[in-house]
Every structure is written in C-alpha cells, then in structure tokens.
Amino acid sequence: MPAVSKGDGMRGLAVFISDIRNCKSKEAEVKRINKELANIRSKFKGDKSLDGYSKRKYVCKLLFIFLLGHDIDFGHMEAVNLLSSNKYTEKQIGYLFISVLVNSNSDLIRLINNAIKNDLSSRYPVFMKLALHCIANVGSREMAEAFVQEIPRILVAGDTMDSVKQSAALCLLRLHRTSPDLVTMGELTSRVVHLLNDQHLGVVTAATSLIIAMAQKNPEELKVSIPLAVGRLGRIVIPAASDLQDYAYYFVPAPWLSVKLLRLLQCYPPPEDDSVRSRLAECLESILNKAQEPPKSKKVQHSNAKYAVLFEAISLIIHYDSDPGLLVRACNQLGQFLQHRETNLRYLALESMCTLASSEFSHEAVKTHIETVISALKTERDVSVRQRAVDLLYAMCDRSNAKQIVAELLDYLETADYSIREEIVLKVAVIAEKYAVDYAWYVDTILNLIRIAGDHVSEEVWYRVIQIVISREEVQGYAAKTVFEALQAPACHENLVKVGGYILGEFGNLIAGDPRSSPLVQFNLLHSKFHLCSVPTRALLLSTYIKFINLFPEIKVTIQDVLRSSSQIRNSDVELQQRAVEYLRLSCVANTDVLATVLEEMPPFLERESSILSKLKKRKGPGLLPEQEDSPKDKNTGVNGTVESASLSPLSADLLGLSSTSSQSSSSSAPRGSLLVDIFADNQSPVPEAAAAPVATENFSKFVCKNSGVLFENQMLQIGLKSEFRQNLGRLHVFYGNKTSMQFLDFSPSVVCHDVNVHAKSVDPVVNGGAQLQQMFNIECISDFQEAPSLNIQFRYGGTLQNIGFKLPVTLNKFFQPTEMSSQEFFQRWKQLSIPQQEVQKIFKAKNPMDMDVTKAKIAGFGVALLDQVDPNPSNFVGAGIIHTKTTQVGCLMRLEPNTQAQMYRLTLRTSRDSVSQQLCELLSDQF
Amino acid sequence: MQFMLLFSRQGKLRLQKWYVPLSDKEKKKITRELVQTVLARKPKMCCFLEWRDLKIVYKRYASLYFCCAIEDQDNELITLEIIHRYVELLDKYFGSVCELDIIFNFEKAYFILDEFLLGGEAQETSKKNVLKAIEQADLLQEASVCLHAGFPPSVLSESFLCSLDIAGVFRRVKLD
Lengths: 928, 176
Prior knowledge:
Oligomer: heterodimer
Number of helices of chain A: 39
Structural class of chain B: alpha+beta
Domain AP complex mu/sigma subunit (chain B): 1-140
Subcellular location (chain B): Cytoplasmic vesicle membrane; Golgi apparatus; Membrane, Clathrin-coated pit
Number of domains of chain B: 2
Membrane topology (chain B): Peripheral membrane protein
Number of strands of chain B: 7
Distance between the termini of chain B: 24 Å
GO molecular function (chain B): clathrin adaptor activity
Organism (chain B): Paramormyrops kingsleyae
Low-confidence stretches of chain B: 145-170
C-alpha cells in the first residue's frame, strides 16, 4: 500500500509535530506546546464554530501533546462532539481521544454513552466496532453498567458480522476483568461456548479469550467447553497438512488459537470422558512430535510460534501432572532446549523445568540435567537466564544433591550479580537447613554465606543459624570453634561479628579449655572488632560480655574495666550507655548464683516455619519453592520412618523437628519430633510401613484427636488403624502387620467392651511372614461412656502363645458433630449452661510446646468446630459441637485459654450433661 | 497482556497502550523504570525478563523497542510473535515502516493496534483481515478528507515527511 493513501492529511498536525521534534531543549518544547495549547483553547472558545476538520486536527494535537507526557485538561467536549458525528474520520479521532484520556466527568460520560449506544445499534459494522473498541479501551464501571446487557446479544446474534463479533467478545472480556460482578451471560453462556465451533478462526480466537475468563470464574458452568476445545485443538494440530490459510503463521497452524485453547484446558482437571481424553492425548503427542521434526522454515518466527504451542502444551501436561510418560517426554524436550543456541529458549526451558521439578513423576528426570544447569550458571551471559538457573537448581534440590547444589551456589555467589545475591543467600540458607544431615555442614554453609556475601545476608538468616545452634546441643561446640576461627580473619563482616558474639556468649565455655581460645583470647578477639561495628552490634556484644562474666569469672575484672570505661558508660547512644551501666552494676551486686540464673543459657527456640522460608516466599510466589518434599502425595517417604514423615509437613521445614538423632537431642526438642509425627500422620496412608514410628507401646491418647496411624508396635507385630465416625456410628479398620518372616498361627483378636456396641468381622487365623491382615469393626455408641473397648490378640509364634492387649481408640469425642455458630449464639448458649455441674474446668501445665496452629489442629481433630472471632481474646480457642449417641444428643461448648508465659492452659467445658463435660475435659486436657 | 509500550533507543515513548486501569502517575513511573531497564540490556540477551510481578517481553526493531508486559501464566514466545505480527502490520500498511511513520501517524498506529489487539488479547491474527479492516476505514476517510480539507491526500507523501525530518532520524524498521 503506497504511503500516499494514508488517508487524512492533517497538514497542521504534521507541521506541529515536526516543530516539536526540532525543539533543541525541553524548555523550547514546553514553550511551543504552551503556545499551541493557547491557540487551541482560543479556537475552542471562539464564537466562530469550528468545522469538523479543524476540530479533528486540534483534538489530534491535544492527543499528541498528552502522549508526549503533558497534562491535558480540556478538549473532552470537542472530542465527544467528534465521536457523535456521523462522519467516520471524526468519530474515529473522537473515540481515540476519549479512549486515551478518560475523564470521569459524569455529564460527559452520559454523552459518550449515548453516542456509543447509537453506534452499537448502527447499521454500519465499522461504527459498531469503533464503539466496542472504545468500551474495551476504557472499560469503566459506568460503561459496564450501561452495556453489559447489550454486548452479549451482539456477540451471539446470527446476523452480526464476524469482525464485530470478535470485538464484542474481547470487549466483554475487558468488562469481565474490570467489573466481574456485572458481567453475566446467563442463558447465553452455552451459545458463547459454542463459538469454539465457529467457522471463522478469528471469531474463535477472540471468543476463546473470553471463554477462558468465564471458565476461571464459573468452572462448573463452562465445563461443556472442554470437549469443544479439544475438538478444535485436534482439527488444528493433528492433520498432516492443514490449510488454515491466513491463520497459519510462518507454517505454524493458528498458533495463537492453539495457545489459548491449551490455556482454557488448564482451567480444568484431565477430561473425564475417555474419547475426549484420548483425543487430547493425541493432540499433545502430535505437538511434542512436531517439535522433533525438521523446521519448515529457517525464520525465527517459525520456531517461536511452534515452540510457543509446545511450551503451552507442556504447561498443560504439568498442570495435569498425571501422565508420567508425557511428563518425562516434556522433560527431555526441555532438556534439549537447555543447550539450544537461542537464549530465549534456554530461558524458557529453565523456567518450565522449575515447575516440572515439583512433579513427583518428573523430579528425577529433571535432576539428570543438573550438570547442564550448573554450567548455565557459569556461562550464561544474561543475568536473567542465570537467575532462572538458580531457581531451577533450587527447585531440583533434594537430599541427594543438596551438598553439590549448595557448593555450586556458594561458588557462584562469589561472582554473582548484586541484584540476585540476596535471593541466592536465602535459597542457600533454606536448602542448607532443609537438607542438612549434619549440622557442622549447615553451620559451615551459613558462615560461608556471611563471608562471601555478608551484605546480602538478611537478619532472618543469621537469626536462624543462632536458633538452630541453640536448639541442637551436638553442634554447639563445633559452632563455637568455627565462629572463633572465622573471627580470626582480619576483616570480617559485621554479620559474622553478630553471630560470633552471640554464639561465643552462649557456648564460648565449650572451647575455653584450649589455651588458643581461652576466655581472655575470646574476649580480646571480640573486643577488637567492637569499635568497627554499628550500634546494634555493639549492644549485642555488650550482652556477650556480661554472659562472659557468668561463663568465665576469671576475666570478670577485665570486662568490668571495659564496661566502666568512659566510652561505654558515657556513650552518647542511650541503649549502649544503659547496657553498660546496668551490666556493670549487675556484675558487681549479684552473687554467682544470681548471675547464673539471670544469664542462663538460652532455652531452645520454639518456632515452626523457618523465617527465611517465609521471607523467600514473600519475595517470590510459592510456586518457585521445591514443594515436592512437602506435598502429602509424595510416596517416596516410607524408608526413613519418622524423619521423612516429619519432613512431609510444611510446618516442620525447619531443622528443629527433623532430625534422625532426635532421640539423643535435648529433652525439650524430643517430644516435638514425635508431636509432629502425631499431627501429620493423618497425611499418611494407614499402611503401617508408611508410618513406621518408633513406638514400642500403645498410643491410645494420641488417637483422641486423630483417626489414623500406628496403634501398637513391637518386634513382631505392628498394628495400624484407620477409623471413621458418623453421628453415633463408627467404623474401624485395623491392620495387623507381621514383621517377622514366620507365620502367626491361630491368630484371633477379640474385643471386650461394656459401654459401646462393637461388632468385629472375622479374620483369617493365619498371618504369613511379612504380610498384613485387615480387620473391620463396626461401632455403635449407645449413650455417653468412659471406658474404651479393649482388644485382645492371641496367636502362636514359633510354638509359643503370644498375648497382646490394648485399648481401641474409641472415645466419646469421636461422636462429635461440629457446629458452627455466631458469637452471639455461642454466648447465649454458654449462659444457658450455667448450672455448676454442667461446667468442668481444668488448669494444667503444657506438656508440649504451645503452638497456635498445632492447638488448632488438635481441637479440630477432637471434633468440635473451631469458632473464629468469638472469643474477644484472639489467642483463646473456642469450639462447639454435638455428641451423638443412640439415646440422646448432647450439645457441648468449649474454651481453651493458653497462657504462654506460664506455659499453662485453662480448659473449660460446658455441656448439658455433667458426665459428658467431665469425660471430654479429661480427654482433651491430656492432649496439650 | 497488561500494557504495550513502543519507545526509541533514546528512550522517547512513541506509543503506549494500557489494558489495565492505572493512574497517569503510575503509568509514567512504570514507563520510566521499564524504558531504563530495557535500554540497559545488551543486544544478545534474551527477550524476557521478570519485572515486579510481571513478565516483560520485548524486541528491538531498528531504532524502536516494542515492549509488552504479560502476566505470570501468559506465554512469552507467543507474545514475542504478537509483537512481530504488529510490526508486520505496520510495515505492510506504511510500506516499509520507520519510526517517523509512527511519530507522524501515531493515530494510525493506534487504530491498527486496536484492530489487532483488544483488551490485551489477540482479536484478529490474520494479517489480511486486519489490513482489510484498516483499508475500509481509510476509504471512508479518503472520501471525507477530500471533501473537508479540500486538498488531495497525496500532499502528505513520504518525501514530505522526510523533508520535515530535520534531525535526520530516519530509520526503517527492519523485519528479520
């Protein structure tokens, strides 16, 4: 098309633009613009009415000035005049101005809407399109309100031109995004969905975008789109030589539409219908196959379009996460891209592999590319690609390769771009903690982080290493020795001084036996750094000094001298001065016993999720974290028993609860380990080997708040349990696992019970070596009860008669039905149950760490509904439920008030029956 | 797509299209930051980058940078080809397009973009169909321009534009 036919020459506009371009300075430009604005203003205000051409020219000039970045506060009225004109050129410029410079002037909006309304009902499709484009560009709520009824009708009407339909579809999409509450297709939904079958591929392309948005909002209603989308996709990607004419792009058939259809399918799980599913599998296979075929064109557009479809197909495969074959193929394909000469493809392959790494089916396949990814880290010239490589290393990290990955990341950190250092530091810290097998390695890693990138080590990281050292006795001596050595460096980072100061203050005594690190040497070493540090670090060091006075009475005088020096005691900083004065005084007046109490070693920290992890999550969406270890569907965990089952829970992502040596660790962390297993064992299948907890005795009280797990275990036999309750009925599945290689003969379990009806299904009297036997019990609760049924098992093992007996975890609370109620209802009922016998209260000491989430989980497991925002004190827990028995139903209200300072709880139960209150209180108070 | 920006190697904004509601202040801030970020990148670097919580897809054609911001789940490669198709459309329409065409006929650049992308999504991906729509509109314009302005459209020829280009920045957008 020759340039001459560009249509409307507005000479004045061209001259003005070229004037602006010739301005030598910003000032000259502003001057020229102001001159023009004054001119336009006077033209608009002048009494001589302007003709359409002049109006158009001036409005265009205003638009140009606005797009240069200047403010425009007039001309809207003239623009509205233009768009109300019935000349196309004027209309077009008027709409453009309004689209770019939206003004919320209500009078104006009314006029604009009127003009749009006229154009929407115009017989010229070009006018309709202009109006639709304007709505789509502005997308304001007022417009949505005015036209949300009209546009869907235009979209599905039989006589609407294809190009208008396309505009209408995307116009609706925009309104759908800005005012989702207003846009409802109602009975037109099905007709919109059937646009997927439209003959005009342009209509299908536009409509698919709209359908995706609708499916995200109303997945159920839009489900019918699945077979249509698959059918359409099939007709594009499967034929050997499809001729889509204009919709082929560099020999790739309809790439935009293919990508959109694949996106639509990602709103849903795999299709249920067999024929649809197999057709989709064909499509995906075909897309993967095409990636391997020789290119039909050397143009980069050809490969980009082809691979755009491929990447979207891989996204769908990852989204389904169900077909190991396709996942592994996808992974191999991406593996090829990792070494592609196109930087873009390497980037995308790294990005896509991050999500593949989180699938259990492809995690191993991703891991095989570790060397390529590491070399990308070293050789890529583009920092955004290196960033992706870091992400992928993080995502593919697990116990088997953690050491290698940490070593590589530390190595890279030395030369890494400043923009991504902090994130690498966080990632290394998380990996080091999560997969630490020995803590010496962990401590070394963190100290390395501080040494290499001290400025980028955030507080969370060094807080964390201290928490861990304090909580893990076995690493304390090593940590003290290591920080002492690290502090020897002439120039060490202030963060190291902080960590060193804190750790030596706590555990310096562990290395004081060595004359090279005697108390005085330690003190002098730390104090030599003192004057180079900032105020907060100095404050920390002063605390270290007073701790030293307690640890090493022999250097008390030296330290007191330092504290007494005028630079400390008269320091201009209030915090430092106060510490110096108070510590000095404390060291003088207190006897050794008092000092030892005040300055006692820090107790282990009670905390769940690593604060580093939460920081990293805040920086990045959760999608980039290696979730595969946390996901309950991970099936590769049974081998290590407790350790692995603890690591399944997201809460135990810290080291504190996740050690194979938990039995030897300090007393306060030991119960934590088992506690974690308790709560999260529900995620496990009840098959005993999956939860091979080291329980040697019965675990009755653990089952009060949960319904599955290992009930009993000794050298011969492991008994697992899975139970479900509904109203006053229950069903128990008991799994007997023979751990020996010999048969159990005459195997006969029998139940003794008084208060509940138990009906046991009979079982085979022989349990083969290594085999498992399952037995089902049906239970009926007649009235409230205290005594749980007991199970006695007799069998012969190698000629001797074995006898095992224990209680089945059938407790009154199992027959709870949770009841939701408002605050008002709750307190009304609470008051109704005011007879003294109805209330039972117990105050007791916490046996386990007081963790809000754990408590919540336990109360929910106990069976009552946990009521939020009922208790005025947010740290209290309030619950309600109804106990179902055959004869009666008993309403129960409970309240638990933790006192973290005193490590005590107060539990109050009110029910309509005193025996129930009593029994529930007994059961629940035992849980914390 | 959340927005599309066209800017020159000198950092001058030539076209901006926003598909999400933002205040003018925010738009200016985003433009400033992004222009800086993209201009600082070297030629052989990859065309994608993470920026805030968006993905930026950009490509340079001669002296012009075309830059799109897409959301996390959007497809980078297909966006790259959206840019290319838009450049093809401009090229076909202006007949070997250059930065000046877009400066002097900015309204046309917007009209073509609206035919191709609406609400941030591809409306019509067939080159033929988009150009047909623009041609139709131009025919309507021709008629009215000649009537109203009173001079033939051929006055605004390419050579006329060149004569206005004192600064000499006259580079053709290269299609590769």
